[in-house]
Specification:
By secondary structure, this protein is mainly α. The protein has a four-stranded mixed sheet, with helices on both faces. The chain is elongated, with a radius of gyration of 26 Å.
Length: about 375
C-alpha cells in the first residue's frame, strides 16, 4: 500500500515502546476511510496499538462522553469520527490524517498509555444530561402531539365508535381498547425500527445522508406552513364549523374511508380480539402515511443524538408509548360513558390550537435538524 510505504519512509527504526490510540466511530463512509488510514498507520509504526470502539455499543459511547468531559474537549463540527492519543483529541478525518502522523513520529520511543477518564457512572450521568437537554423534551412533545394530531384525531373518534359497538360491559370495553392499542403500539414500533435501520444505513453515504437531512428540513418547514394555513382556515370558518374540505393536514378522505371499513368489518363477536388486533394493525399502516410527518424527523433526531443502538431503541419505545397514550385514556373514558359525539365537539373546539401546536412542532424539529446538520 502506498500510504504504508510513505509512513515507513519517515518512521525510522522501530523502538521498544507502545503508543495507544482510541478510535470512536459509527457506520459511515468517513468512518471507513479513517479506519483504513489508521490501519495503514498501525502497519507502518510497530509501536501503535489501535483500540477500535464502535459507538453503537453503549459502553463505548459512555467512554467517549467521559473522555470529552475530563479533557474539556468539544466536537464542534459534530464529526462522525473521534480519536484520542492520551489527552489529545482529534475530530474528523482531516484532523486525524493531517495532525496524527507528526504526533506519532514525535512520540516514538515513548510509552503512551490510554488516558483513563472518570467512572462509567460519571459517563452515564453525562449521557443522561445530554439526552435530557434534547431527547426527552423533543420525544415527549412529539409523541404526545403526534398522538392527537389532526391526522390521528379522526381515527380516535372512530375508535370510540368501535368501543361502543363492542362494549356491553366496562371490562369488555377495556379489553377491546387495550387490544387495539397494543396493535397500534407494536405496529408503530416495528415501523420505527425499520425507519431507524434505514436512516442509520444512510450514514454510510454522507452526501446522500446530507441530502436526506436537507429534504427533512424542507419537509418540516412545508408542514409548518401548511399547518398555519389550516389554522387560519379553521379560525375563519369558526370553531363550531365542520371540518373544511380546504384543510391540507388531515387524513385523506380515501384513507379515512378505508379505516372506517376496516373497523366496521371486525365489529363482530365471532372475531372479537383477533379482529380488533388485526384492525389496529391495518389502521396503523394506513394512518402512518399521515403520522409519519412527525415520526420520521423524530427518528432522525434520535439517531443524531443517541448513536448507541440500544439507547435509540429505548427512545422509540418511549415515543410510541406516548403516541398510544391517548388511546389508553380514551379506552377508560369510554368505559365510563364517553361517546364519539363528545369527541367530535372536542375536535372542533381544539382544531385551531392543535394546528398551531403542530406548526410550532414542525418549526422546532426543523431548527433541531439545522443545528445538527453536517
Amino acid at each position: 500500500m502506498a500510504l504504508t510505504g510513505l509512513f515507513l519512509a519517515v518512521s525510522g527504526p522501530s523502538l521498544a515502546s507502545e503508543i495507544n490510540l482510541r478510535f470512536f466511530h459509527s457506520d459511515c463512509r468517513e468512518c471507513e476511510e479513517t479506519k483504513e488510514f489508521l490501519e495503514a498507520l498501525n502497519g507502518a509504526f510497530d509501536e501503535i496499538t489501535l483500540h477500535d470502539l464502535p459507538l453503537e455499543q453503549e459502553e463505548n459511547y459512555l467512554l467517549l462522553l467521559a473522555l470529552e468531559k475530563d479533557l474539556n474537549s468539544v466536537n464542534e463540527k459534530n464529526a462522525p469520527v473521534s480519536l484520542f492519543l492520551f489527552t489529545n483529541a482529534f475530530y474528523g478525518i482531516t484532523a486525524i490524517t493531517n495532525s496524527l502522523p507528526p504526533k506519532i513520529i514525535a512520540l516514538q520511543g515513548q510509552d503512551v498509555p490510554l488516558y483513563e477518564p472518570g467512572s462509567a457512572k460519571e459517563g452515564g450521568e453525562l449521557a443522561s444530561e445530554r439526552m435530557k437537554s434534547f431527547t426527552l423534551t423533543s420525544v415527549l412533545v412529539n409523541g404526545l402531539l403526534d398522538g392527537i394530531n389532526p391526522c390521528a384525531f379522526a381515527t380516535l373518534i372512530l375508535f370510540i365508535s368501535l368501543l361502543s359497538v363492542y362494549g356491553t360491559s366496562k371490562s369488555e370495553i377495556v379489553v377491546t381498547g387495550l387490544t387495539f392499542t397494543s396493535a397500534v403500539f407494536l405496529t408503530y414500533l416495528a415501523l420505527g425500527l425499520g425507519f431507524l435501520n434505514v436512516i442509520k444505513a444512510l450514514t454510510i453515504f454522507p452526501k446522500i445522508k446530507f441530502c436526506f437531512d436537507i429534504a427533512l428540513i424542507i419537509f418540516c418547514l412545508v408542514c409548518a406552513a401548511l399547518s398555519i394555513k389550516d389554522a387560519i382556515t379553521v379560525k375563519r370558518s369558526g370553531t363550531g364549523a365542520k371540518e373544511s374540505e380546504d384543510l391540507t393536514m388531515k387524513l385523506p378522505p380515501r384513507l379515512r374511508s378505508m379505516i372506517t371499513k376496516i373497523l366496521s368489518s371486525y365489529a363482530g363477536k365471532k372475531r372479537w380480539l383477533f379482529g380488533v388486533f388485526l384492525a389496529g394493525f391495518l389502521v396503523s399502516l394506513l394512518e402512518s402515511v399521515c403520522t409519519g410527518q412527525v415520526y420520521i424527523p423524530t427518528i432522525n433526531l434520535i439517531i443524531k443524538n443517541n448513536p448507541a443502538q440500544v439507547t435509540a431503541w429505548l427512545w422509540l419505545v418511549f415515543y410510541n408509548s406516548l403516541f398510544a397514550l391517548p388511546l389508553v385514556i380514551l379506552t377508560f373514558l369510554a368505559a365510563f360513558g364517553l361517546r364519539s359525539q363528545f369527541m367530535l365537539k372536542v375536535q372542533r373546539k381544539g382544531a385551531f390550537p392543535i394546528r398551531i401546536g403542530m406548526a410550532l412542532l414542525f418549526l422546532f424539529m426543523a431548527a433541531l435538524l439545522i443545528a445538527h446538520l453536517r
